[in-house]
Amino acid sequence: MGLAPSAEASVTPAFRPPERPCYIEGAWTSPRYGTAGYNLLLQPAGRVYFAGDWLSHEVAWQHGAFVAARSAVSALHQRVMAG
Question: Phi and psi (nearest 5°) for 26?
């Protein structure tokens, strides 16, 4: 059973050749904590709040994702309560 012809044209392979590397290579990343770029991601961009394990000190763990999500939700809650 194959895909419809139009669907087959939109399927991209999961493999990326070495000459075209991904931006984040490997299972874990080590963000540069305390840099201007990292600190910028910790702040909301208008109504958009960022969260993820990579925005915590527990990278690649569910705990890190939870900590980052809780931080984002707490910041959002404070914003709403402030009016």
Answer: 100, 175
Task: Tell me the DSSP string of 14-39.
Answer: S---TTS--SS-SS-----TTSHHHH
Question: How far are the Cα atoms of 4, 5, 11 from residue 1, in angstroms, in the given order?
Answer: 9, 12, 15
If one counts the domains in the chain, the total is: 1
Range of the domain at 38: 32-83
CATH number at residue 44: 1.10.10.1620
Within a domain: residue 43? yes
In this prediction the pTM is 0.62
If you search the block for the tokens 């290579």, which residue do you land on? 25
Residue 77 included in any domain: yes
Span 2-21, pLDDT tens digits: 555 555 555 565 666 666 66
Report d(CA 78, CA 19) in Å as an integer.
Answer: 46
